[in-house]
Every structure is written in structure tokens, then in C-alpha cells.
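Let us begin with a simple case.
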Amino acid sequence: MVEFKFDCIFYYVSDLDKAIGFYQGKLGFKLTSRDVVARFDVDGVLFELVPTKEHAGTRNDGNGRLCLTVKSVAAALAEFKQLGVSIREAQKKPGGVLGTFRDPDGNEICLWEYATGS
């Protein structure tokens, strides 16, 4: 059987500089390297931005998403809204709260707040 090791998660972007500005400037991701692609460390996970003209201006509504946990979805969305990020209203779901927004290329980013026992 083939042995797999995790490599990365990536999104296609139409403008690498603009995307780096969004992920680094607005989300606070740590840029670890940049050559043909931009690489970020997100809590020990390699997240890459891959430039491509082929996908420019298209939205990918497939099942791939970047999902990040936060202590408070409401507080995180309020902070992103102040930074000029277009957000969607948080939704209560079984097990927690979900918040979503999109990067400049339309890639969806999910914020998840786990429900705490009462």
C-alpha cells in the first residue's frame, strides 16, 4: 500500500500579489516563502497560493474549502468587516457556529466556532 504524507492545501489565484496582501494583511497568515507560489504556515499546515490565468475570474464552488477554527465567529467576522472584507452572516449549525467569506478570487473561507457545553 502507498504511504501518504500530507503536503499542502492550495487555492488558485489570479493575482498573487493581491492574494498575498489579503491573506497576510487581512487574515494575518505568516508568509513563509515565495517563488512561483506563495506559502503560508497556518497552525502547522502548509497553505499555498498558486497563480493561474486559467482560473482567473471563475468561482470554484466545489467541495474544497479552507476552514479555520476561532473562539468567536461573531468577533472574527466583525473584525474582518472592519478591514473591508465582505462577510456573510454567521449561521448556527449542529455543534457550533459557521461564518464564511471569500478571498479576492472568490475562494470561500470558513470560520468554525465549536459549541461549548452548557
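The second case is a distinct protein. As before, the sequence precedes its C-alpha cells.
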Amino acid sequence: MADNDQLLNQLKSKYQSAISAAPGMGIRLTHVHVDGGKLLIQGDAPNENVKNQLWTAIKQVDASYSDLTVDIRIDSSLPQPAAAPQAGGNGGTKYTVQSGDTLSKIAKERYGNASDYMRIFEANRDKLSDPNMIKVGQELVIP
């Protein structure tokens, strides 16, 4: 039994990032244990997209996941996550201004080009009157 516990701890540690991320994705984990020498993760996801996000997290740990069995069912009664903004749409990601930030610095980090700062300014005209006047703690939309 000690070997099983040691294997469980070793595999849980290996896949901890995916296991820890699951609840934040809206996945309800029901079982995480060793079965047949592999880590077995069972649970329910609110939709197929969320289930695929978990698989992406698992593959980032180990693309072969040969020491893992995952059984995630779709349970549409679970709370649905907020829809992610579509690329090229009117949405964007939220960003909280940090000390030392400028729109140019944020544009360089997000787009690779500091001169794209006006994209961020235009998306935040409801909060900003001057692209040079952003405040620490301010939440901006990054299109």
C-alpha cells in the first residue's frame, strides 16, 4: 500500500498544475487516485470547451500523459464559465495597470510593438481621456 501512496503522491505532484486549475475552469473533480499504476482523474465539466482546456493543461505537463487516465464527463447543469472574448471582436482581455506601466509598454508586451498603444487607448476611451494618463490599479481592456 505504501508503494501505491508514493505513486499517487508522485503523479499528483507531476500533474498538480492541471489538477489545481480544474476548479477554476469550472470542473468538479470527483476522484483523483491511482488505478492500474496510472493516475486517474475523474470529474465533470460544464461544457466541451472547458474539458478541452483541461486537456491542454495536461498536455503542457506531459504531451504523452502515458501515466494518466482522465475521465471528464459533460454536466451542463454545472455553472457555465463566462464566454471568452473572440479574437478580432469587440471584446478583449482585462489588464490591471501596474506601477511603471505606460500604454506603449503594455502594447509592446501584448502586441510586440509599442506604437500600437493607440489600439489600447481607443478601446478604453470610456476610462481614458489622454493616452499618457493611466493610473496604477486602473482596469483596462486590451483588444
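The longest strand covers residues 28-35. The longest helix spans residues 48-61.
Keep these points in mind for the review questions at the end of the chapter.
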